[in-house]
Design a protein that fits this description.
The chain has 2 domains: 121 residues, no CATH class; 181 residues, Vaccinia Virus protein VP39 (Rossmann fold, 3-Layer(aba) Sandwich). Helices cover 35% and strands 24% of the residues. The protein has 11 helices and 13 strands. The longest helix has 17 residues.
């Protein structure tokens, strides 16, 4: 047998197999109730998580390639520039818990340089991460890996089936600035939950990406690009709602809006009725006046001091921040 073939065979024999645990179970009635409660509110709204059906997820991937939306590229460059400094701050041999892991690419680039001892990919469905974990496992054949299917927006349950070692430090990894979708009050509650999930092992903490406050016109353009990809992403929500609640939203009746709300330091996405329209669903309806909106997403923007203060309010004992040269984005390490 050729030497190269022998080495591949030996590597395959030593490779561990990812563990998959699905906790979240889709509840159609609960989803419909949540959506209809928001649609019937005085200011109609929906949770941004409903933007990400299959098509919405692909559209968001396209958004990250747009010149107006440089958040993903800036974060990747920041991680590259400061990887050595981050490695000096983070614990070696830690269990990495990747929140909203998706294709696992962001964490995958860090597991080796940061000396991870275990990896847990968390997403709402293990099917979303199964293929990515299989690929990642081949790249790190001896690293224990697991996929955990859970909606962590209201807390992060870590089931006993994971058999986490309480003495092993944990690195909770939440890149991409999704924390901006929360209001400051919601973000505080969410971060407190993450602080609890860090456990009690010395060295544990949270590595989190945060989009920073910048020129309002620039921020608005990032959420309303010239090609109209973000508009399609927002409008696709209506089709997703139709499938989930049986409503009859027509995309042609609505247009996408992006605006910066200075007092609340956030970009807001809205869908605005182009004319008076009545939307129906089984057992109910709502009349929208011309110009009335459905609030579909917030993207809160922070400064380094204001987010450090939020982390400390959530219980984290120490913080360290890295920014890109233009101070457009920041990654924080918050020690528990």
């Amino acid at each position: 047998m050729p030497v190269a073939t022998h080495r591949v065979s030996a590597l395959t024999c030593r490779m561990t197999t990812p563990q998959f645990i699905q906790l979240y179970q889709h509840n159609a009635a609960a989803v419909a109730q949540e959506l209809l409660q928001g649609l019937n509110a005085p200011q109609a709204f929906t949770s941004p998580k409903y933007l990400y059906d299959a098509l919405g997820s692909r559209l968001f991937e396209a958004i990250t390639e747009l010149p107006e939306y440089d958040l993903t590229r800036t974060e990747a460059e920041l991680m590259r520039l400061h990887s050595a400094s981050m490695a000096a701050q983070l614990p070696r041999g830690a269990c990495w818990i990747d929140l909203g892991a998706g294709n696992c690419e962001k964490a995958g680039r860090l597991l080796g340089p940061m000396g991870a001892g275990r990896y847990v990919a968390v997403d709402i469905s293990v099917d979303f991460v199964r293929q990515a974990l299989d690929v990642l496992q081949r790249q790190h054949p001896s690293l224990p890996m697991a996929g955990l299917g859970v909606d962590f927006s209201g807390g992060l349950p870590l089931p006993t089936e994971l058999a986490l070692d309480p003495a092993q430090p944990r690195v909770l990894f939440y890149p991409g600035s999704s924390i901006g979708n929360f209001t400051p009050e919601q973000a505080l509650d969410f971060l407190r939950n993450l602080h609890s999930a860090c456990g009690s092992a010395p060295g544990s903490g949270l590595l989190i990406g945060v989009d920073l406050l910048k020129d309002p016109a620039e921020m608005e353009a990032a959420y309303d690009d010239a090609l109209g990809v973000t508009a399609a992403f927002d409008l696709n929500l209506l089709l997703h709602i139709n499938r989930l609640v049986g409503s009859n939203f027509a995309v042609r009746d609505w247009r996408h809006l992006s605006r910066f709300n200075a007092p609340l330091s956030r970009v807001e996405m809205h869908l605005q009725a182009s004319h008076a329209v009545t939307v129906q669903w089984p057992g109910g309806h709502r009349q929208f006046a011309a110009g009335e909106t459905i609030h579909t997403e917030n993207a809160c923007k922070w400064t380094v001091p204001s987010f450090e203060a939020l982390l400390r309010s959530a219980g984290f004992a120490s913080t360290h921040a890295w920014t890109d040269p233009a101070h457009r984005f920041a990654v924080f390490w918050a020690g528990a």
